[in-house]
Specification:
The protein is mainly beta. Among the domains are: 108 residues, no CATH class; 99 residues, no CATH class; 145 residues, no CATH class. 10% of the residues lie in helices and 33% in strands. It contains eight helices and 41 strands. The protein has a five-stranded mixed beta sheet. Strands 6-7-8-10-9 form a five-stranded mixed beta sheet, with helices on both faces. A four-stranded antiparallel beta sheet has the order 11-41-40-39, with no helix packed on it. A hairpin with a 5-residue loop joins strand 28 and strand 29. Helix 1 packs across helix 4 and helix 5 crosses helix 7.
């Protein structure tokens, strides 16, 4: 009989340790008994691969831990590792095998109550290898992914004269039940006859190769396939009503939240319940009809609300479900048969990457959204313009290289967009400044060598669009802003021209380079005040901020970020408010716990005069300013969102994201708020 203990032991093999706890750096995440509607491992976890099953299907085990009916589960990742981990516990799975990359999408699997009573070619091969190891032969199942990696694993084990293995690529000869669908070749050295004898003893067909350069061919034992039940769809948790917590009157009303999942390489988009597109399945695998991968939905049970917060609009994936803008005039299509509401699903390589920046374009109808480096990969499209109502991707901004990420962006009053790219050129870190004029293609402006690049606050522009500040490897650089289409004047290194009469600055010319020893030059971040008179600089690991007076080109003040000296620390962003403060988001590690904090410094002298507002919400990770009122919207590491008056009163607070913290916020001119999470989710809220 199949027990929960054996099931758990196989998962321990998969994770490589006797625990199912998911940790940063794991290759496999395991999510047992999931009861969250629309669950996605890309948002809930950080690993490249995952296995999960629902709480309803977990009831397949009885109170004594015996499997009484088939247990369907879902997986993504390297199926050869998954199959081998269970075979190591003498359990046979049925896996749906995709025609392409199994790390993309979500695929079905099934554990049968007969799993321990079935014999397969894979189990026969493992028994043969076990017998060979008992006789002193190095016999390694699935050693590495390539032949060279396999021989490296053999060398790590020892120098026995006879060795044999197969690798991850050759494991592809097995089907989703562990039966050999075609001959497989083993790599070997030493006594091939001894290896062939062990294979034949288990019923596998094999012959001694004619040459040492030829692999040992293995063929299946034949006969009927294992009597494992057909794949079935998992039982999905029922849609859950969203819990709304109130702190007095609710001021922010959730209109919609996007967390759809889909891989950009597959061509088409996904809706709110973003299904992965059908793919051809392989032997032994498949969904109920053997063809369609499981839907990896965003949040099919989540809901949007009407502007007054009274009418829930269930996002069930049914055609026609919709929300409306606050005045009731503009429908926000949430699902249906029309163009898919893919939003960031079409703009980003993988859901799960943090959203680093959100900013409204002039007019407020579109949002610029930047996605940063996450735990899985660089974003394929790190910067895109989205429709603010549907999060539909409207434009993708080209990036200068595969690993480039957006370090900052700002719209000028004339609707031009300036972007600071963190890029690399021949091993050199560069801050690459680009300009996009409406109706024209983006163009490069400046390339500034850097020692180390931070992820955010690499560019800041004043309200009038005349002063631009960027960090460099030797301080804060102040540049003038050129007219649309003006190219920077080329400079000859080492040549200075003395003129009898002062000349006006050339387009995009550097006007000043300001330095101070109080802040390290590596991982620098900058901000300029709205009036263009002050510029602040700090660094990711700094303990203080330096503020410069741009008219005097001198230090105006220095201010510490921490009341007590921290251990490991970091600064995620800084920006001036419209009301005369410098807002800094800082982090410190104390007693193995990360503490996030909002620090509000007086722009006049660096004093902290708004501590009640700083403490109104703990663990602050994102902040934005209301366009008319002295009110901050603050996001936290726990995924919560709140409104805080500058005087210190907490006006509103609510849970927003289930997984990850709030990583970016933007306040629109009409009071709407767009929030992004560290796992790639988006939410649209309106002030009421």
């Amino acid at each position: 009989m199949v027990t929960r203990e054996a099931f758990t032991a196989a998962l321990h093999r998969l994770k490589g340790r006797p625990s199912l706890e998911n940790e940063e750096g794991d290759f496999w995440d395991v999510f047992p008994a999931v009861d969250e509607p629309g669950f996605s491992p890309l948002i809930a976890g950080s690993a490249q691969a995952a296995v999960w099953w629902t709480a309803a299907d977990d009831a397949a085990f009885d109170a004594q831990g015996v499997l009484r009916r088939p247990l369907p589960f879902t997986w993504r990742g390297d199926w050869t590792q998954l199959q081998l981990a269970f075979a190591g516990q003498k359990l046979t799975l049925r896996l749906q095998l995709p025609a392409g990359d199994s790390s993309v999408g979500a695929w079905l699997g099934l554990l049968s109550p007969r799993a321990d009573a079935c014999d397969t070619d894979l189990l026969r091969l493992l028994r043969a290898f076990e017998r060979l190891r008992a006789g002193g032969v190095i016999a390694l199942p699935r050693a590495g992914y390539t032949q060279s990696e396999g021989w490296e694993d053999v060398a790590a084990v020892g120098a026995a004269p006879t060795a044999v293995f197969w690798h991850g690529q050759s494991h592809d000869a097995f089907d989703g039940l562990g039966q050999l669908a075609r001959p497989m070749y083993l790599y070997w050295r030493g006594d091939a006859a001894r290896v062939v004898e062990a294979l034949r003893a288990q019923g596998l067909a094999s012959e001694v190769p004619a040459s040492e350069t030829v692999g040992i061919e293995v063929r299946g034992a034949g006969g009927e396939p294992p009597p494992i039940e057909a794949l079935v769809e998992p039982q999905q948790p029922p849609p859950a009503e969203e819990v709304r917590e109130r702190a007095g009157d609710q001021l922010l009303v959730l209109v919609t939240r996007w967390s759809g999942v889909r891989d950009a390489s597959r061509g088409a988009g996904a809706g709110v319940a973003g299904s992965v597109h059908p793919e051809r399945s392989r032997g032994g695998g498949g969904a109920s009809d053997g063809s369609t991968p499981l839907t990896m939905s965003g949040e099919p049970g989540a809901r949007a609300e009407s502007p007054d917060g009274s009418t829930p609009l269930t996002r069930s994936g049914e055609p026609g479900a919709r929300a409306e803008s606050p005045d009731g005039s503009t429908p926000l299509t949430l699902s249906g048969s029309g163009p898919p509401l893919s939003g960031l699903a079409g703009a980003f390589h993988q859901v799960g990457s943090p959203i680093d920046l959100l900013t409204f374009a002039p007019g407020g109808e579109t949002v610029l959204c930047a996605c940063g480096f996450g735990t899985r990969d660089f974003p394929e499209v790190p910067l895109a313009v989205l429709d603010r109502r549907t999060f539909r991707r409207l434009e993708v901004l080209p990036k200068p290289g595969f690993s480039a990420t957006c370090g900052g962006a700002a719209f000028l009053p004339d609707a031009r967009l300036l972007v600071a790219w963190n890029a690399y050129d021949h091993g050199q870190s560069l801050l690459q400044l680009a300009e996009r004029t409406p109706g024209a293609a983006p163009r490069d402006l400046l390339k500034l060598p850097m020692s180390h690049l931070a992820q955010r606050a690499q560019l800041s522009v004043d309200r009038a669009g005349k002063v631009l500040v960027v960090p460099t490897r030797s301080g804060l650089a102040v540049h003038g802003v050129g007219a649309p289409g003006q190219a920077p004047k080329p400079r000859t290194p080492g040549v200075k021209v003395r003129r009898a009469h002062p000349q006006p600055p050339a387009p995009w010319e550097e006007l000043a380079r300001l330095t101070d020893d109080a802040v390290d030059e590596a991982y620098g971040m900058v901000a300029v005040s709205p009036d263009g008179r002050l510029a602040a600089r700090t660094a990711n690991g700094a303990v203080q901020v330096v503020c410069f007076d741009l008219e005097r080109r001198a230090v105006a003040w220095r201010a510490p970020l921490y009341d007590t000296p921290p251990g490991p620390r970091g600064v995620s962003s800084l920006a001036f408010t419209p009301w005369g403060q410098l807002a800094v988001l800082a982090r410190a590690s104390r007693e193995e716990r990360d503490e996030h904090a909002l620090v509000l410094l007086d722009a006049k002298d660096g004093e902290r005069r708004w501590r009640p507002a700083e403490r109104a919400l703990s663990q602050a990770t994102a902040v934005a300013c209301h366009p008319q009122r002295e009110v901050l919207v603050v996001g936290t590491a726990a995924g919560r969102l709140g409104l805080v008056a500058l005087a210190g009163e907490r006006l509103d607070e609510r849970p927003l994201f289930r997984h990850g913290g709030v990583s970016a916020l933007a306040f629109g001119a009409d009071g709407c708020v767009v929030a992004g999470s560290s796992r790639g989710e988006l939410a649209l809220l309106f002030w009421q």
